Structures are given as C-alpha cells and as structure tokens.
UniProtKB/TrEMBL annotation:
Its cofactor is Zn(2+). One of its GO terms (molecular function) is tRNA-guanosine(34) queuine transglycosylase activity. Residues 11-375 form the tRNA-guanine(15) transglycosylase-like domain. It catalyses: 7-aminomethyl-7-carbaguanine + guanosine(34) in tRNA = 7-aminomethyl-7-carbaguanosine(34) in tRNA + guanine. One of its GO terms (cellular component) is cytosol. Belongs to the queuine tRNA-ribosyltransferase family. Homodimer. Within each dimer, one monomer is responsible for RNA recognition and catalysis, while the other monomer binds to the replacement base PreQ1. This is Queuine tRNA-ribosyltransferase. Keywords: Glycosyltransferase, Metal-binding, Queuosine biosynthesis, Transferase, tRNA processing, Zinc. One of its GO terms (biological process) is tRNA queuosine(34) biosynthetic process. It comes from Helicobacter valdiviensis. The gene is tgt.
C-alpha cells in the first residue's frame, strides 16, 4: 500500500491510497456492504457512482456463506464481481452490538451466532485468517469496543486488550508476509490498527502510544466513537486524538456518521469514513440534499415534480421526481430502496469529493462553514 499526502489545508488533508484493486482518493466515504452487498444495490450501481472502496464485514461473512466459501470462489472481488477495493471490519463492533451473546476474554471474543446460536471464538489471528480468505485490501484488526458512558476501569481494560491483540496481529501479519515472500508470492492485504480510549485524552494518548510503538501498521483507525456520547464531545475527542496518529498514514474514523460529522472530522484531519446512515436512512424515507434533509414520506411531496436535489446529477435525480419517489415509498415498492440509496450515496460521495477539491484549492474552510450551516 502507498499513501501520498497531496495537500493540507489547516488540518484537512487530500491524499491518495494505492491499493491492489485501484487508487482511492481521500477524503473518502466507504458505503457499507456488510454481506459483500450494499443493501438494495448491485455493484454496477456503485461503479456508476465511481465508488473506489466498499466496507464488508468479517463477522457476517464468516458466518454466512463462510470465508472458506468466499476463498474457493476467488475472494470478495471475484465472488461479488466488484472489481475495486474492499475494507473488512474485524467483528469487534458486532461483538459490542450483540451484547448478551458475547463474552470478551484476554485471548479473544466468544460469541453466539445471531443466525443459529452456534458458538464461535474470534482471536486476533483467527480474524486475520478469515480476512486473508476474503482477500480484502484493508483488514481491520480485532479490537475491544466499549459503549459510552463507561467506567475508567472498563475503558483502560479495553485499551490494554486492544493493544495486546494489535501486537499479536502485527506479528502474525509480518510472519505471513515473510511466508508469502519465501513462496515467491506477495501478500497484498494491508492492516489498520484501531485507537481506543473513549473520550478521555489520557486514554487516547495511551492507546496511540501503544499502537505506534509496535511497528508499521498500514493505517490507523479511531474507534469507540458515535457509541452514545454527545456530538460535541466526539468532535472534541477527535481534536486531541487525530494529531496522535502518524501523519504519513491514512486516518479512518469508524462508523461515523452524518454529513456534519464527516465535515467536522475532515476539518480535524481524518481521511476515511464509513456509515450505514446514507442507505439505512434512505430506506426509511430520509433523503440528504445540498439544502438539508427531507422526509420523502411527507404528503407535501405528493405533487412535487422536482428532483430530490436540484444540485445532484445522480441517476435518480436526473430521471425521477420527488412525487414519484414519494409514491414508491408509500406503495412499499422495492425500487424505492434502490433509487433513494443511489441518491444518498451520491450525496455522501460528492460531499467528500467536494471536500477534497476545496482542500486542493485551499478553500476548505468555506465548504466547512457551509455544511455546518446546512446540517447544524
């Protein structure tokens, strides 16, 4: 993997990440394709949106259809026919969200499948082996995620455990790279570490110190945010956490968020994002536009012949009216899910592209203020 910083405007950064399946220009938003599929869309839709990277989930693909099946069918790229890059989450968030079905131990995470109740055990090495089978371009390592608010004891425990697992992961990944090299092959998978620590400056520093002392991870993520804390506290935490991470590596804020969250994080130096919000909100009737959010279920759109967003050039906005989308939603038509998801993802991808262009021109602050006003 090669990461190049092309321009910095304040703390906001424009760069490029060269991966095995193509270049990713940053800042970038990654649509969530948990099951190697972005809900309601196929990958032709994503290619038409010029999406360079999609997030898939290790936990879900391990359970169904299984990483062995995906490996036999040529990895995620051949299996799904999406020719560009995949990032795979480690399953740490699923462990957090499964609640009572999970037991965190020093060696790893014991969990019961949400599908059939069967018991499984994820260790740092096990997670990487699954991700090697999936052949994702960027692999997130196993971490211990804590919801907020949480006690200082629990947060410190999560940092220690996450650091222990990170050390196991980087050592195992280094071993695998040597193994491939000895066999005359090259391992093209890259690993990102995950900084934890809640909203506590001292804990975030501790986590960053641990992770950066272990060797060269390919990138660094910020985890454990947008899990119950107020937005302003999340922004404050980003302000003191982002500078702790290496400047010459991509910085990834996991699972965040609204257009305002993304622009605030770019303002503070974050490069990569993912969130279910654009597609989930689309399916529930919430549309993101250059003028703010709108609820397509509202009866005021029944006779509205305008596109969802007059400043959007996506397939949906070029071909269909608010009235038609309102009708599809009210009628429960499945085509609504696709058309609204295309638009919301187009909006998110344009947001990060506009941010990149503004950074390159040295005009990011103007865009930042504009988005903050619209999505206050």
């Amino acid at each position: 993997m090669e990461f190049n910083l092309q321009k910095i405007d304040g703390e906001a950064r424009a760069g490029s990440i060269k991966l095995a399946h193509g270049e990713v220009l940053t800042p970038i938003f990654m649509p969530v394709g948990t099951q190697a599929s972005v809900k309601a869309l196929d990958f032709k839709d994503l290619l038409e949106l010029d999406c360079p990277i999609v997030l898939a989930n290790t936990y879900h693909l391990y359970l169904r259809p299984s990483d062995e099946v995906v490996a036999k069918l040529g990895g995620l790229h051949n299996f799904s026919k999406f020719p560009r890059n995949f990032l795979t989450d480690s399953g740490g968030f699923q462990a957090f969200s499964l609640g009572g079905n999970v037991k965190v131990q020093e060696e790893g995470i014991v969990f019961k499948s949400h599908i059939d109740g069967s018991k499984h055990f994820f260790t740092p090495k096990k997670v990487l082996d699954i991700e090697y089978n999936l052949n994702s371009d960027i692999m997130m390592i196993l971490d211990d995620l804590v919801g907020l608010p949480a006690s200082k004891e629990r947060i410190k425990e999560s940092i220690n455990r996450t650091s222990l697992w990170a050390k196991e992961a980087i050592e195992y990944h280094t071993f695998k790279k040597e193994q491939f090299k000895n066999e005359g092959r090259e391992l093209s998978n890259n690993i990102f570490a995950i900084n934890q620590g809640g909203t506590d400056r001292e804990f975030r520093e501790m986590s960053a110190r641990d992770l950066t002392s272990m060797g060269e991870f390919d990138g660094y993520a910020i985890g454990g945010l947008a899990v119950g804390e107020p937005n302003e506290l999340m922004y404050e935490t980003l302000s003191f956490t982002v500078p702790l991470l290496p400047k010459n590596k991509p910085r990834y804020l996991m699972g965040v968020g609204t257009p305002r969250d993304i622009i605030e994080a770019i303002y503070r130096g974050v490069d990569m994002f993912d969130c279910v919000m654009p597609t989930r909100n689309a399916r529930n009737g919430t549309i993101f536009t250059h003028f703010g959010k709108l609820s397509i279920k509202s009866s005021r759109f029944k006779l509205d012949d305008n596109p969802l967003d007059s400043k959007c050039s996506c397939y949906t906005c070029q071909n269909f009216s608010r009235a038609y989308l309102h009708h599809l939603f009210r009628a429960g038509e499945m085509s609504y899910f696709r058309l609204s998801s295309i638009h919301n993802l187009a909006f998110y991808l344009k947001l990060v592209r506009d941010a990149r262009e503004a950074i390159l021109k040295g005009e990011f602050r103007r865009l930042y203020q504009e988005i903050c006003e619209i999505y206050n």
